[in-house]
Design a protein that fits this description.
Structural class: alpha+beta
Radius of gyration: 21 Å
Distance between the termini: 31 Å
Number of domains: 1
CATH class: Alpha Beta
Number of strands: 15
Strand content: 15-25%
Strand order of the largest sheet: 2-1-14-13-12-11-10-9
CATH topology: Beta-lactamase
Order of helices and strands: HHEEEHHHHHHEEHEEEHHEEEEEEEHHH
CATH architecture: 3-Layer(aba) Sandwich
CATH superfamily: DD-peptidase/beta-lactamase superfamily
Amino acid sequence: MSGCQASRRSVGRHGRPGVAARHPSSVTRRAVLAAALAFLLAPCWPVQAAPGAAQAQAAFQEQLQRSLGRGFPGVSVALATRQGVIWTGAAGLANLETGAPAHAGYLYGIGSITKVFVACVIEQLAEEGRLSLEATPQDILGPEAVREIANADRATLRQLLRHTSGIPTWEFDADWIRRGRGAQLLTERPWGKEEPLDYLRHGRHAATNAPGAAYAYSNTNYTLLGMVIEKVTGHEAVAEIHSRVLDPLGLTDIRLEGFEAVDAQRVPARYHFDTAEFRRDAGLHSSYRAVRPGLIDVSASNLSTEWTAGGMLATARDLAAFALALRAGRLVPAAAQRRMLDFAPTNDPEDPGSDVAEGLFREQLAQGRLVGMDGGVLGFGAVMGWLEDQDLVIVLMTNVGSMHSGDAAEYPLRLIKSAAFLRAARELATALSPPRAASEARSQAPASSAQPR
């Protein structure tokens, strides 16, 4: 099987050396890397490409080039259907100072898309009878682990998964912002898994609502769920994600930064939108460097600050393969997948028309709806999802972050919602992966598949 046919908001099993130091490559290493990149950059054509595929690819590539006008240094994209990952591509630069081009082999931060992997593991454990979704974090972790965290003794794991727990988020604590993403950033060591929870204790933040009473997005929910995974299994959360999700799918290019080895040569330079809001709320660390008006280089940072709430790096190809498997019902049992797709309105005035389920969101598009998740962290932004009305998975990632930078800062979900981009993606997917007859699609669908609604 060729490589082309292999299968929001707001890293273990392989040891804990953190982010690998940059170092000169040997001749052998350069040769291996060149061969790998040649494979990754080879055009992804299905066996039977429809007439007009070349034109559709050119039109979509033009949309990627236009996206750079939004301020993205570089973008990496993958499109997938039931035939597999049918197209990968990139535009722009991985490093603005050296001129290194963006390409599909780079690992980009995916932010809160990490939460979808955590939700899958929690649901697997629930289906195995190893935990109850009606238990509270305190029930499983004990009172000391959750002391002085509002609602952690009352909200259920189900409510954590759906962001209805009312547990406040550490992400918007003023001190955490400056230490986790800004002027007081700790660059000399990875953060501890539970370290962000300290920014909620001592009465610093009250509950946002009574458990189950309303939707309120909170990174704390998924920090606690990561701790639950480790308590219940006795293993590192990253090890469980690998053994339960990544390894069965043969995915090797998704990593949890700071908690397993990462090849730093495969990570692009990290940038962030430098706005008045970012300077006010986060501040500029001494390592941050201006590279062009409104953009700073934040490559000295790493995503250990996020852990299971948002610390993953991935290639667009592997993330698209993950989304395909999730959509097809290959990662969790049918009952668990129904829960993961049981959407309810968020009633979020800042995101009208959005629905929330377990680790997933459903967004209204100009035409149709997108099921998936987006993520934003220091230095990166990404979106992963599938269209409800078409056999199409879209993954788009960029090496610039917009967190704490204000509403004017661009992010990938906004690009995917644009009519021109979405139309070009639909047309390319249709050209490269023509729809099969309904009878054929039904005969090959997994028995446990819960089709997108």
